[in-house]
Amino acid sequence: MQTPEPPPARRSHLVGGMDVGGSKIETCLFDEQFRPLERRRVETACATYEELLDCIVGEVHWLDSHAGGAVDLGIGLPGLVDHATGRALTSNLPATGRPLREDLVAKLGRSVAMANDCKCFALSEANGGAGEGAEITLGLILGTGVGGGVTRRGRLVLGHNDLPGELGHLGIPGRLVAQWALPMLLCGCGRVGCYETLVSGPGLVRLAGRHGGAGRAPSDIARLARSGDTAMAATMREWLMLLAELIHTAQCTIDMQCVVLGGGLSRIPDVAQMLAETYRACRIAGRETRFAVARFGDASGTRGAAMLLTHS
Ligand SMILES: [Zn+2]
What we know:
By secondary structure, this protein is of the alpha/beta class. The chain has helices at about 50-65, 100-110, 115-125, 175-180, 195-200, 200-210, 220-225, 230-255, 270-280, 300-310, and strands at about 10-20, 25-30, 35-45, 70-75, 80, 90, 110-115, 135-140, 145-150, 155, 260, 290-295. Bound molecules: zinc ion.
């Protein structure tokens, strides 16, 4: 085995954030205020664990070359990362069960912070983003899947298993299933009837299919609903009520002041306002919850990853 070269001299005020996804790796160099200086995306062309390690190391060298020295590094990735052992559990990368963090530390000769990508999103938005100032913030990503993270006073709440905010894998209440005769679908997590199966992007498409809009993209569903299409309006109403019920469960457990929405479905026009109104009608009581769309959008992945070393 090759001995890693010692890292070049450190420029401590710069920090690197990396968002490792199943199809691309985005890497960004930030200044001390977490403003982006250099950013690039490469494809995740990694069939094996060793290739994945090499790919990440290559991106770190790119960061170092632009920083003029070894940068501190945070990495976000899909799936679960055991914060005690650094072992990964991810269906999108060839790293399940591997000590990814420790192997990168050994190859890079520096500390590496690592967390679930939804946690990075939540951390970024709670610090200078749309959730700034709230004591408890729920960052909720509505995309291909549904995941999230919880922050308290700008720090991630990691709990026992890094699970706070993984709301997509709660079960849809029987009350709504009975009311709309909803299908009980197998979720990617192996359970049946998770919210993710009907409130994610593919979930919204499924809901539309039940109203005669099979194959319509989420953006079309939302646009048609706004223009008065009654079937797509009914679809959006179901989707918003399912989401509001999900928010209600979160409110009863973590009682957040603010919900920040991210992911592809957060680009639906006025989605935060529509969800706030739907939630207001179904909540028990109490003070208003603020709903907002992410300030940093897709860039929150790298930005939050870069914050892991200092804000966790
Ligand atoms: Zn699930």
